[in-house]
UniProtKB/TrEMBL annotation, chain A:
<feature type="transmembrane region" description="Helical">
    <location>
        <begin position="454"/>
        <end position="474"/>
    </location>
</feature>
<dbReference type="InterPro" id="IPR005625">
    <property type="entry name" value="PepSY-ass_TM"/>
</dbReference>
<feature type="transmembrane region" description="Helical">
    <location>
        <begin position="429"/>
        <end position="448"/>
    </location>
</feature>
<keyword id="KW-0472">Membrane</keyword>
<feature type="transmembrane region" description="Helical">
    <location>
        <begin position="12"/>
        <end position="36"/>
    </location>
</feature>
<feature type="transmembrane region" description="Helical">
    <location>
        <begin position="326"/>
        <end position="346"/>
    </location>
</feature>
<dbReference type="Pfam" id="PF03929">
    <property type="entry name" value="PepSY_TM"/>
</dbReference>
<protein>
    <submittedName>
        <fullName>PepSY domain-containing protein</fullName>
    </submittedName>
</protein>
<feature type="transmembrane region" description="Helical">
    <location>
        <begin position="398"/>
        <end position="417"/>
    </location>
</feature>
<keyword id="KW-1133">Transmembrane helix</keyword>
<feature type="transmembrane region" description="Helical">
    <location>
        <begin position="366"/>
        <end position="386"/>
    </location>
</feature>
<keyword id="KW-0812">Transmembrane</keyword>
<feature type="transmembrane region" description="Helical">
    <location>
        <begin position="142"/>
        <end position="163"/>
    </location>
</feature>
<feature type="transmembrane region" description="Helical">
    <location>
        <begin position="184"/>
        <end position="206"/>
    </location>
</feature>
Length: 481, 96
């Protein structure tokens, strides 16, 4: 590669990275959290901890769910759908989309009794943020699609820039060197070791977002959310025929237990997620809602369709087992660190940057990297501190998240850089370490020792300790300066 | 994938990463290994061995569904590389 071409690639990598980097950081960070969206929802609804992990769905609970569906239908409510118990969430949920999130009663899958869970967006908040940045539709999706396109270019230019040193520098990490050198090593190490993951997640993300970026492309199969929103005016969507019988027939015909049930256009569709297959093409059986007569089941997909569904499945991680999900979490974390270290590296090389760009980038780094982590931890704290019976608590949690983030932005823009970083990192540390304590005080006794609460609390505490550790690095650097 | 197969796959991939690390100049320098006329041949042999060991790991992991198992192997390779880079980071260079 000629020096001129290399300089042009470096320019593209630096500026495309800087312009889209902050949004990419938020997308990667929330996407990594969204891998465990169901688990986070359960953590944010500790009342569900009383339901055993291996609860079996009884016919009594299914009848109760059908009764609620019929009541909603007669009251003129928009169509609901059912989430059946599965290992990730053993409760039975009757949900509908209220324009912002999925809401509705949560039932005990054995007794059919309503569990008085607190209203929260839960892990769905991170999932929604990941692909919309909470910007109204369709602009949020389009912006994320544009960032995905830019990120593909950044990855490509980064690989070309580093190709020559990829083999010799593969395990190079010098944490004891200067800050700029350490950051570059972290950036290159997380970039090169996780390269297959970066390419896969960007490519599959591009396929998923292409529909939004290029509205000409339309897929005919509606998603879960679309299927729920579309038939607003459809009269009597709730099934009259027994859901229990449909459930039994579906188990026999598909060979696996269904995971969710949709009601649309006089039909009831029971779908099963193919666990640990990475294929997002769920197996479905459709019945007539009035008579309960079996109508059809999913046809075998062609090889091209299967390839498309596998690419979707690789990104959405819906049908993954726990091991692959944790590995994906590690990959997502590495991507987040790669973007974050790249952004901070830009400001660490301060002498090479113009003063105004440097100061703005430094402050935006604090507000958008540190601020986002603080805001994400604060949503867990708000979840526990806002009284469970408050009707608008779900909105309050989200308002609290953006409020904390806005305060971080204000601090970063007004205070000296070191001081604002100290305050934000200190707050992140305190929040991270406080979450396990608050959870211990507010969650039911049954939830304390569960793997779910132990993992979420440990990760929050670890984040807090990392933030406090970053304060020590900052102090050391200040002494060095 | 059963726990035994997973442990075996992880151990094999870790070994593969270690063997590859041994072929890198900066790692050899850390352990005070001097360059000799046979160094180039050693490097080629080590890298081929690392690839064979990784291939063996993929073969061990393949049980019933190929795509998830290959995805697990690739992700384990990436994560083990980061772990080894962290371990190597704390090894001081030997003064010759």
């Amino acid at each position: 590669m000629t020096p001129a071409r290399r300089a042009r690639l470096a320019w593209l990598h630096r500026w495309a990275g800087l312009v889209t980097g902050w949004a990419a950081f938020a997308i990667f960070f929330t996407g990594t959290l969204a891998l465990f969206d169901t688990e986070l929802t359960r953590w944010m609804q500790p009342e569900t901890a009383l339901i055993p992990q291996d609860s079996q769905l009884t016919s009594y609970a299914m009848d109760r769910a059908q009764q609620i569906l019929l009541e909603n239908d007669h009251a003129g409510a928009p169509p609901s759908f059912l989430l059946l118990p599965e290992p990730r969430d053993p409760t039975l949920r009757v949900l509908h989309y209220d324009g912002h999130s999925f809401v509705g009663p949560t039932l005990d899958p054995q007794t059919g009794q309503t569990i008085p869970v607190r209203q929260t967006e839960g892990g769905n908040f991170f999932f929604h943020f990941h692909y919309t940045l909470r910007i109204p539709s369709p602009w949020g999706e389009r912006l994320v699609a544009c960032i995905a396109f830019a990120f593909a270019a950044i990855v490509f230019s980064g690989v070309l820039l580093h190709l020559k040193r990829l083999m010799p520098d593969y395990f190079t990490l010098r944490l004891k060197a200067s800050m700029a050198r350490s950051l570059l090593d972290i950036h290159v190490l997380t970039g090169s070791t996780m390269l297959p993951f970066h390419i896969m997640i960007t490519w599959t993300g591009l396929i998923l977002t292409a529909e939004n970026a290029l509205p000409v492309i339309q897929l005919d199969q509606p998603s879960l959310a679309q299927a729920d929103i579309a038939p607003q005016g459809t009269p009597h969507w709730a099934p009259q025929a027994s859901l229990n019988l449909m459930l039994q027939q579906t188990r026999t015909r598909l060979g696996i237990a269904p995971s969710y049930v949709l009601f649309d256009d006089g039909k009831t569709t029971l779908s099963a997620i193919r666990q640990n297959s990475l294929n997002s093409n769920d197996l479905s059986a459709t019945f007539d809602s009035q008579s309960g007569e079996f109508l059809s089941k999913t046809k075998d997909a062609s090889q091209i369709e299967d390839a498309f569904y596998i690419l979707n499945g690789l990104h959405l991680a819906r049908s993954m087992g726990p091991l692959l999900r944790w590995l994906w979490f590690g990959g997502g974390l590495a991507s987040t660190i790669m973007v974050g270290s790249g952004l901070i590296y830009y400001t660490a090389r301060q002498k090479k940057q113009p003063a105004y760009t440097f100061h703005l980038a430094q402050r935006l780094n604090i507000a958008l990297i540190g601020g986002l982590v603080t805001a994400c931890l604060s949503i867990f704290v708000f979840n526990r501190l806002i009284p469970a019976f408050w009707a608008a608590r779900s909105t309050l949690e989200v308002t609290g998240f953006f409020g904390i983030w806005a305060v971080c932005l204000l601090l970063a823009m007004t205070l000296p850089v070191n001081r604002s970083w100290r305050i934000i990192a200190g707050t992140t540390g305190m929040l991270g370490l406080a979450i396990p304590a608050i959870d211990g005080c507010t969650a039911p006794l049954a939830a304390w020792g569960t793997p779910l609460h132990l993992s979420v609390n440990s990760l929050c505490a670890l984040t807090g300790l990392t933030a406090i550790g970053s304060l020590r690095i900052l102090s050391g650097q200040a002494r060095h300066d | 994938m059963t726990d035994t197969v997973l442990c075996l796959t992880e151990a094999t991939i870790f070994a593969s990463c270690l063997i590859w690390a041994c072929s890198l100049t900066f790692v050899r320098n850390k352990f005070g290994l001097q360059a000799t006329p046979t160094t180039k041949k050693q490097i080629i042999v080590l890298r081929l061995l690392a690839l064979v060991v990784f291939g063996r790991a993929v073969k061990i992991s393949l049980a019933n569904s190929a795509i998830p198992d290959i995805a697990i192997c690739i992700m384990l390779l990436s994560i083990n590389s980061i772990i080894i880079a962290l371990l190597l980071c704390f090894i001081e260079k030997k003064r010759s």
